[in-house]
Write a structure and sequence with these properties.
8 helices, 35% helix, alpha+beta, 249 residues, five-stranded mixed beta sheet
């Protein structure tokens, strides 16, 4: 395939960015999207130009680092991570726009790389347990009802990629935060911090400058791991329960 790429280039966090246009030829339909960008960067390096900076790590759909907005969609036209998106999803002659996540809480570092440390600080606020569990226990040592185990596992699948924030018209982080809260709050190991966890993590989320949730639903649609929209309502119930219990308003 021969493709036209319109890529966001920004030298650093303080510089003004702009879209730059490149042509790439001989792109195989079996290439991943990141392999296509590797091909572009090889050509740029041979020309003595600065390669396009983009985030990636495992390239197996696990780490969530490969955060790109492709033709206006977080991670592109398929419901998967960018690293698992293949060029067979595009046609010869296509023009592809490639941009970083767009959210005030995710400032651009360079080109397509954004700073997602706001997510780390939300986790640090309460995404942990303090129960001394020691080494891995026997599978049935702590009985957990099957519906609770399934609910926790479904939310534990969140990889923190930030697609929910990028897709949300308000730049909200409610789906990410709710996934982390619900994963732990439903398990007995997370019970000691159940109330403080939701209050602290929601407070940190607000402090980071993410937008408010209006239940547009774009977050769940873009999530490559299928975190459901009802995760947000479950978190809201937890937050209301905690505020009533603690007397906070």
């Amino acid at each position: 395939m021969k493709l036209t790429l319109r890529v966001w280039r920004q030298k650093n966090a303080d510089a003004e960015g702009a879209m730059s246009t490149y042509q790439v030829d001989d792109i195989s339909a079996d290439m991943s999207f990141l392999e296509m960008l590797d091909t572009l960067n090889e050509e740029l390096i041979l020309k003595g130009e600065d390669p396009v900076a983009f985030d990636h790590d495992c390239r197996e759909g696990i780490c969530g680092a490969c955060s790109l907005v492709i033709n206006g969609d977080a991670h592109g036209p398929e419901r998967t991570t960018t690293c698992q998106l293949h060029m067979r999803s595009f046609q010869d002659g296509d023009t592809i726009d490639i941009e970083p996540w767009r959210a005030s809480a995710f400032p651009v570092v360079k080109d397509l790389v954004v700073d997602r440390s706001a997510f780390d600080r939300i986790i640090q606020a309460g995404g942990y347990i303090t129960a001394p569990t020691g080494a891995a226990p026997e599978a049935h040592a702590t009985p957990v009802p099957k519906p609770d185990a399934d609910f926790a596992f479904e939310h534990a699948e969140c990889i923190g990629c930030g697609a929910c924030v990028a897709a949300c018209p308000n730049g909200a982080a409610m789906l990410f935060t709710s996934a982390k809260i619900n994963h732990l709050n439903v398990l007995p190991q997370g019970a000691p911090e159940r109330e403080s966890r939701v209050l602290d993590m929601v407070a940190q989320m607000d402090e980071e400058g993410f937008g408010g949730c209006t239940l547009a639903g774009e977050c769940a649609t873009a999530c490559p791991k299928g975190i459901p929209l009802f995760s947000i309502t479950s978190m809201n119930k937890e937050w209301l329960r905690a505020t009533r219990s603690s007397g906070k308003r």
